[in-house]
From TrEMBL:
InterPro entries: c-mor_Regulatory_Protein, Homeodomain-like_sf, Mor_transcription_activator, YraL-like. This is Mor transcription activator family protein. Gene3D superfamilies: Homeodomain-like. SUPFAM superfamilies: Homeodomain-like. It comes from the Bacteria.
Amino acid sequence: MCYIAAKEVLPIEIIELIQTYIEGEYIYIPKKEANKKPWGSTTTTRKEINLRDSSIYSEYMNGVSRNSLAEKYFLSKKSIDRIILKEKSK
């Protein structure tokens, strides 16, 4: 994320108002709730994780141990347990 100089996008009155609270520092202005996108909606990451979790559950159901799955997928045993529980409830 890069920053934008306030003087390039805000009227001087707003800049002066903000300066009563903070000046010379970086601040983050969050997006409006209506403009936020759900995590993973702009990439394939969510789909890839769902496929991975399905594979983990399938392997578990075919007898692969949780410890083996943790090693294979570089996850903790607790993460494997969480994935199995989530997939089982689907």
